[in-house]
Amino acid sequence: MQLFYQENITGEAFDLDPTESNHLGKVLRKAIGDLVHFTNGKGSLFTCRIVDNNPKKCRLEVVEHTFSPRENFHIHLAVAPTKNTDRIEWMLEKITEIGFHEITFLRTVNIERNRVNLERMLKKIISASKQSGKVWLPVINDLDDYEAFVTDKAFDTYQRFIAYVDKDNQSHLMHLAKPENSYLILIGPEGDFSPGEISLALSRGFTPCSLGKQRLRTETAGIIAVHSLNLVNL
To answer: Which residue intervals define the domain Ribosomal RNA small subunit methyltransferase E PUA-like in the entry (predicted)?
Structure first.
């Protein structure tokens, strides 16, 4: 099923913006009467019929609307952005395909990038969601200060983990995580978390975890963390 995205779908019919109209009418050559599938990224799937394939203002009629509730678990990944934007964007695409719910970028001591282009990254998430047939769009948050984020009491009900390089840290995330929970996992930069950052997280109740025996790049660690938590909830 080919899936399209439209944030606000209300009523029995709606219009697409010029960019999406052109894509549907000219690029894909969809004709009047064709059925197409849209999501609003909030759990809804709309089966729509094209009533006007004008490349500047395509109009669609809603034929059927179904809703898929969220999973009974929540994965929040908090990660320091990499210096190379392409690597973090690649990670976003892959974890969207696998399935996650929220991401926050962290401003750490050893951070490699002090700014993130949220608009561009959201486009990557939308594209990956459409390609993998996801009807829920993950939430993406801007850079947050590490200390403020880790000490935020809003996460006190989560199972909280911090992944870092330590030969004595042998307990894998999959063995520590309990199914049907909300999870928050911290992934550090290439230079890892500082000793002070690790101590702060541990003092706030974060559990140290391993993601395997190998030393991983930031984006690889993020993918493994999300995949592991999905496996726990199969």
So the answer is: 16-62
Q: How far apart are CA 129 and CA 96, in angstroms?
A: 6
DSSP state for residue 11 in the 8-state scheme: S
164-188 mean pLDDT: 90
Farthest-apart Cα atoms in the chain, separation: 63
> Does 17 have pLDDT greater than 90?
no
pLDDT at residue number 76 = 98
Tokens of 159: 């199972």
pTM as predicted: 0.93
pLDDT digits (tens, 9 = 90+) for 183-226: 999 999 988 899 999 999 999 999 999 998 888 999 999 999 99
Secondary structure of residue 46 in the 3-state scheme: strand
For 95-126, write each residue's pLDDT tens digit.
999 999 999 999 999 988 888 999 999 999 99
Fold of 3-67: Ribosomal Protein L25; Chain P (2.40.240)
Which superfamily does CATH assign the domain made up of 74-232 to? SPOUT methyltransferase, trefoil knot domain (3.40.1280.10)
Helix (H) or strand (E) holding 231: helix 218-232
DSSP 153: G
List CB contacts of 197: < 8 A, sequence separation 6 or more.
Answer: 108, 109, 146, 150, 188
